[in-house]
User: Fold this.
Amino acid sequence: MSQLDISNLSGLRISPSNEDDLEKDPNEKKIKYPKSVFFIIATELSERFSYYGMRAVLTIYMRNMLNFNEDKATTFYHTFLLMCYGLPIVWGIIADSFWGKYTTIWIVSLIFALGNVILTLSSIPPLNLPAIPLTMIGLFLMALGTSGMKPCVAPFGGEQFKLPAQAKYLQQFFSVFFFAVTVGNMISTIITPVFRRDIQCFGIGCYPLAFGVPSVTMLFAVGVFVSGKSLYKINPPAGNMLVKVVRCITHALVNKKYSDQEKSNWLDYADDKFDAGLINDIKMLLRVLVYYIPIPMFFALYEQLGSRWTLMATRMDGRIGNSSFIIKPDQMQVSNAILMFIFIPIFQALVYPLFRKCRLLKRPLQRMGVGGFIAALSFFVAGIIELQIEKNHYIPPSPSETHLKFVNTLPCPVLMTNNLELDNSTLVIGPENAQIVTFVNTNRLGMTLTLNESCDSLASINNRKWVGEVPLMLGSLQAVFIFVKNNTLVASISATKEDFVKSNEGNAKVRIVINGISNNNIPPLEMITLKSLRGDAATYDMNVIKGSNDFSYTSVSELPPGEYSVVNNFLQNISHIGNSGHSSWAEVGNVDVHTGGSYLYVVHPSYGNLSDSFKLQMIVINTPNEIHMLWLIPQYVLMAWAEILFIVSGMEFSFTQAPKSMKSVLQSLWHLMNAFGNVIVILSAQAKHSHSQATEFFEFAGAMLIDIIIFCLLAMRYKYVEGTTGSIKDRNDNKE
Assistant:
């Protein structure tokens, strides 16, 4: 949840010291509550639903559907956020100086809706539209739209109230406004991943629905907002304070360059054109802005919840117990909003009062410092979890390597020797087992296979030795099957590369290889279907391809985790073998696959006394995701604590320490700090200097630690402004 989105609640001037008196104003009851604010709240709820719903699945969409690698997907995701938080300054100037808030809101809402519609259309495969260019156009328009709403919607809602008589109502409006933002975020972050994963459109996850529902919601928001025009109080543009600040600073710098006079402060050179009050307020503004310098690094960590942390979740197991419910990786983002709802009241009611009794964390900068340390800790924890995830990953061959997966289908061990004088020149492959061996810079491998003489199960085998060569494909993983044909030991290499890459969707990858069918008078197969044994009883067809005289195989299919029975479509018979391991071909067996695993299932004849039956042998190419997704909760909890301490306290610091005339300026610059934080992530993703994702997490943790130490050193010198008078406390005990 981005900055709690209370950053939208800027631009209104209410002195906290007067609120109690204002609530007692007798005129408050005589003035009707403005109905117009309900249209504004409904607009914000719909816009936040649309924004967060799209954003929840965006990174995974770019990786899975646009075929971006994770660095590229991360770069475009944070470029989108960069625009979302960098452009509010521009739109604030346009609204305050030219168009006014009402006109700006409905125009940018249309722009946002148009971008959402374009993104949706680009994700519909049958339209055959250029997906990547249209996606970029859609995201650009959406960034323009949402960045225009940030500085306008909440202040426009505040303008509907008559002050001071309705100050209490105004405070209630901000609470409801924040609630609407949070509800829109949570609902959309939960349901759009369901559309993406659990609903099939055009044979794939339904991204058109995941983007389309937010599009319809945004079009609804535009209609709701415009329909309330007759009820709105619309103020004309009155000028933008940020423009005045820039003009004053520019004028001071120019005058100082050409002036012969000596003045105590360089801003005083603008006193010939600007009044002393504005100049003094800018001095105080710049004094506060020094403490904004370390803030971008915090946002560089915080905004990765929707990119690196979401991609991290795709490599984890989301199953809940033995149920069919699976947590989607992009649904983990909602943890932030839920945890904020839980912890904000706890911090306000328990944590802060307890620390105040201990004379700790009394000042905003102190709390920001602690929040920064906790943010660094959250990424350190993320790095530890990522290290555990990476332990389960199969390391693919380099371009100069070939990985051979020797698959022994026999009930006896087999000795493999090759003609290369390497450490792996001799290998014992266990009964009905498989083992990977790496070969470097060779296109053909000469080898000898020898069946163990002491194996009684295959006593009738005449020729127990096989000598031959197999062709190798560099940079690939290939399977070598060891079996018996015509009472002779035989080896045959797979006609295709095995797929070792984990599924981007968190599914399991399955290929079925059939051996020895023609030797047992079984009719040829055209298709094998796997039928889910879950409640949905979904079926997945796998076309059978003839590979050689000895083997046929299916293409690789992605299946949701669970147990499946093998259906021979030619015989129209479903297996009911359970765990016995033997059957006729009509009863091959069940397969049980897990999140992220890659499996090779070999159907081959049984040997010995069961030579007329068949067996289903499972070979794991890539181990399934073994680390559960709920192990992400600790780092999400730490980041929620960091967000409360750093962002909320940072906004309190900005509001209380800035001159009244500069509060909206500081709010715009706060958004800009977020934009700079996204620049840091973009540069990191493009640098590609990290060896692993875990290393990158540790690097961000270290950078945040250094950054917050610098921040704390600066904070120790800060003297707080006294209330709203503008005077500065000089007593040493008021320093951080």
User: Anything to note?
Assistant: The first helix runs from residue 19 to 23. The CA atoms of residues 26 and 165 lie 8 Å apart.
